[in-house]
Write a structure and sequence with these properties.
The complex is a heterodimer of chains A (about 300) and B (about 350). Helix content of chain A is about 70%, strand content about 0%. With about 300 residues, chain A is mainly alpha-helical. Chain A has a single domain, classed as ABC transporter involved in vitamin B12 uptake, BtuC, CATH 1.10.3470.10. Chain A has a two-stranded antiparallel sheet with strand order 1-2. In chain A, helix 1 packs parallel to helix 6, helix 1 packs antiparallel against helix 9 and helix 6 packs across helix 7. The longest helix of chain A is centred in the middle third of the chain and has 28 residues. Chain B has a single domain, classed as ABC transporter involved in vitamin B12 uptake, BtuC (Orthogonal Bundle), CATH 1.10.3470. Chain B is an all-alpha fold and about 350 residues long. Classes of the chains: A mainly alpha (about 300), B mainly alpha (about 350). At the A-B interface, helix 4, helix 10 and helix 12 of A face helix 6, helix 11 and helix 13 of B.
């Protein structure tokens, strides 16, 4: 049971990186539909950089953020400055990302005879706190990226609701004309939220390759970027809302893993693998009271 | 133009491999025409793409996003292979093909229509639901390939091969080009007629313009969501049918994993026009065949095709921007002229 809950937090971590940044982007009025591609680029770049430096995970994470930002720049440029359709652009960039990763993976490593592995991030037990019964081993025996979120979620919520930056972001998602008249630079602010998403989703992607599995395959993300995207909807575009959402999905993934490894189940494995996706559909359908940012997905064009 | 730029970019990437991009590209083009078999293969590859592209385009005309064509394609494939295996010994081939086609249309339509229903009934986000439904379909397929549909040898996750009687007839002997291609062409034309010549198509496009306007015109947009998604799902599923009965002649785990995404790219390239989709699909088919040949001949990884597809798509979108700017400038020039006169 403790193992399951601990793994829930672990599997929820990358999703939270993704959905937290998606909250910011969508509150400003842009959907980050390149999220799956950015995750993949982060996972790949993080792995390659870590592998080439002999397992240096810090460099791996930096590379993942860099690759994430680069992808985000392309996406943001096309959707925000060139005002093109966001979903369509996202789909294109996701395919491009897949192409880049699988092509250069071959270019760099050829066809390896033995699987390429790096040592993934290790859990760090926080002294004293990790000795607290139950909670200690669930919350305080995780890796550094998870701990970072303990700080990031409250900060993200504070910035969004209590600072002028957060107010600006929220207002250009609801009424960009008013923000523009008030002197906000709508496009630039939206672009910044997408860059932020690039950093966060880069880390989220790298979590799968170097934070957890220690290897890279082109199917490593397998729609989890989209799940993070869905969590943003389900969490009603609120930082604490997506926190709850990621815990639910983390639990679904943790359950799937433990069911598969126990191997003595009357249900087929595939059902458990499909569980997070089915859950997304069910929750998307069940969740009614949406608080959608008014201008979500609509490029801002100045009059004149 | 966008296509050319996409090719150039992917060509430049070949430099990383230490290959000369010009010779590689020359090889790509010459190899496409080296024999009838290879040339015909372009159209074989284009066939399922037409269906998935139509699936995206039709929903897109109603301002709906069906990102789940991949899953609907798999559902169609599963039904096609199961129905064919079940009936191939019992009924004459031609009749089986008709029944199988009807069954795939129904299954894909219901799978897709369900998404439309969730949208209409619960206002569920169809983009997310259709995206997730692909992963569900994939897992259903994997499960069935491991259990009910597993080949008799039980070695690989694939089905027994289909009887020759239920193969779609070959058009040109000596190639793999099958009559599914004709069906795809006819479907493209059919969808064009549906969209631009029939009342239902008018309604679908009207819904795309904004649902307030349609509601006022007395069209129930909720029913329209379901109908549009039903047709969309049925189209993608038919793609599975022609691929299974026409080209693969069995169901193999993880086959055609990019047919859905490429379909979206094609629909974008063709600007959602069913006739444009024919040509765009053939182009993508050529890229796929060329990419595979490059992989065999020059040791260039076949993932170069995804790279080409992705960059072509990005350039197409940039092309839209350029076109918008040009039109804008033309308008401005007109205005100036009018003012100066």
């Amino acid at each position: 049971m403790i193992g399951l809950l601990s793994r829930t937090i672990l599997m929820g971590t990358p999703l939270l990186y993704g959905s937290l940044s998606e909250v910011y982007a969508e509150r400003s009025g842009v959907m980050n539909t390149a999220i799956e591609g950015i995750f993949l680029m982060g996972a790949w770049a993080g792995f390659v950089a870590a592998y080439q430096t002999g397992g240096n995970l810090v460099i791996g994470l930096l590379a993942a953020m860099g690759a994430g930002v680069l992808t985000a720049v392309l996406y943001g440029w096309i959707t925000i400055y060139l005002k093109q359709q966001q979903i369509v652009t996202g789909v294109a960039i996701n395919i491009l990302a897949l192409g880049i990763c699988s092509f250069f993976q071959r270019v760099i490593f050829g066809v390896p005879l033995t699987p390429l592995i790096v040592e993934p991030l290790q859990p760090i037990a926080i002294p004293i706190l990790s000795n607290v019964p139950v909670i200690g081993s669930i919350l305080f025996n995780q890796n550094i990226l998870t701990y970072l979120l303990f700080v990031l979620v409250p900060v993200a919520s504070f910035v969004l609701y209590k600072t002028s930056l957060g107010l600006s972001i929220r207002s250009i998602g609801e009424n960009p004309e008013a923000g523009d008249v008030a002197g906000l630079r709508v496009d630039r602010l939206r672009f910044l939220t997408i860059l932020f998403a690039g950093v966060m989703c880069g880390i989220g992607g790298a979590f799968y390759s170097i934070g957890y599995l220690g290897m890279f395959t082109t199917t490593i993300i397998g729609g989890r970027g989209w799940i993070a995207f869905a969590i943003c909807f389900l969490g009603n575009w609120k930082p604490y809302g997506v926190l709850i959402g990621t815990l639910i999905f983390g639990l679904a993934e943790a359950l799937a893993i433990s069911m598969q490894s126990s191997g003595q189940s009357i249900f087929p494995n595939e059902l458990f693998i499909a569980l997070p996706y089915i859950l997304t559909i069910v929750l998307t359908v069940a969740r009614r009271s949406f608080n959608v940012p008014a201008e979500l997905g609509i490029p801002y064009r100045k009059e004149g | 133009m966008a296509v050319l730029l996409g090719l150039i970019v992917s060509g430049l990437l070949l430099l990383f491999l230490g290959e000369n991009p010009l010779t590689a590209m020359a090889m790509l083009f010459s190899s496409l025409f080296r024999d009838g078999y290879t040339f015909a293969d372009i159209f074989v590859k284009a066939t399922p793409l037409m269906f998935t592209a139509l699936a995206f385009a039709l929903a897109f005309q109603a301002n709906l996003f069906n990102i789940g064509a991949q899953g609907q394609f798999y559902i169609g494939s599963i039904v096609a292979v199961s129905a064919s295996l079940l009936l191939q010994d019992k009924l004459p081939g031609g009749l089986v093909l008709i029944i199988v086609a009807a069954a795939t249309i129904l299954a894909g339509g219901v799978w897709g229509g369900l998404i439309g229903w969730l949208k209409a009934r619960f206002n569920a986000n169809e983009f997310l639901v259709s995206m997730m439904s692909t992963y569900v379909a994939l897992n259903i397929m994997n499960y069935l390939l491991r259990t009910w549909l597993l080949e008799s040898k039980g070695e690989y996750p694939q089905t027994n091969p289909l009887d020759k009687t239920v193969w779609l007839p070959i058009i040109f002997p000596g190639t793999r080009l099958h009559s599914g291609f004709i069906l795809a062409l006819l479907t493209c034309i059919g969808v064009w007629i549906l969209l631009y010549k029939l009342p239902l198509g008018f309604r679908i496009r009207a819904a795309g313009q904004g649902k307030d306007a349609t509601a006022m015109a007395g069209i129930n947009y909720k029913t329209l969501y379901i109908i549009a998604f039903f047709i969309s799902g049925a189209l993608a599923a038919l793609g599975g049918f022609v691929e299974v009965n026409g080209a693969q002649h069995m169901l193999v785990q993880g086959f055609n994993p990019d047919v859905g995404a490429a379909g979206i790219g094609i629909a974008i390239l063709a600007n959602g026009n069913p006739i444009g989709i024919i040509f765009a699909s053939i182009l993508f088919g050529a890229l796929k065949v060329g990419g595979t040949i490059m992989g065999q001949l020059a040791g260039i990884p076949s993932s170069i095709t995804e790279l080409m597809l992705g960059s072509v798509m990005v350039f197409v979108i940039l092309g839209y921007f350029v076109r918008e700017k040009l039109e804008e400038n033309r308008e401005k020039a007109k205005l100036k002229e009018a003012v100066s006169v």
